[in-house]
Structures are given as C-alpha cells and as structure tokens.
Predict the structure.
Amino acid sequence: MNFGELKDKIASYLNRSDLSSQITDFVNIAQRKIERGDIVDGQQSINNIYGGFNCLKSTETGTLTSDSAYLALPTRYKSTIDLSIVSDGSIYTLQQEEKTYAIGLYKDLTGSTGTPSLYCTDTINSRFILRPTPDDGDTYYLDYYNYLAELSADTD
C-alpha cells in the first residue's frame, strides 16, 4: 500500500470531507508516535516501548577527522546501537557516556588525543563528541536507529 492509498482508506474510514486536508498530518504524527514506541493502552495512558523496530535501523561508515572531537549526527538520527572504530587494524567499540562525564574526563579537546574510547551524544549541536580526540583519520562504523522520512508523495 502506498501513501495515496493509505490516505484514501483513512478518508473513507473517517467519512468526513472537512478532515481530508489534515490526513497527511495525522499519518505523519502517528508515524512518529510509532517510531518512539508510544502505545496507548485501554486506560488511555501512554506506555513507551522504545520503538526499536528493525525498519528504523541504519548503518553509516566514514572516516574520522584527525584532531576533531566531533562527528556529525546522521540525518534523522534517533539513537545509537553501536559506534566502533578501526584503528591500526583493530576494532574498538566506543563506550557511550553522559556528556558531563565525557568532557570532565578529557577536559582539553586538543591536548587529549589518541584512539577514542568513549563518546557522548550532543543532540543540541547535532553531533557526537569523541573522547579522547582522534589523532588519526580512522574508519568508524555507526549502527543506529533513525526516524523514517515523512511521507508526502502519494507514491511513497
């Protein structure tokens, strides 16, 4: 079923022509609730089941920038499953920590360099902070959950 067929089905179910222009919004709001894992139970209370669905999993690989403590978050990033780097032929899985802990442990962004052992998510600035700061352009592997693109075209 594509988005156009879904909108037609919802319009038929609603049987209200005054809501036709809002159906796209209804679907995209529902999509975000499902992705978050918000489930409404029989008592109308929301239970969050995290929303870690396989269709939301994604992988990204790239090269770290030497002497840069930052790695940009992917588009529509939701949460991290695993972040690893390959350095000198070995694979290292980075430990996720709270931002205050990660920065407190390595206060000097430029003086504390080496192979990163931990990271934190800086969602306000749309980036990861890697600690210590990478001293090489190592390859990284990021497995994460992302938000799906909003549906807009009838063929989606």
Notes: The longest helix spans residues 23-36. The longest strand covers residues 77-87.
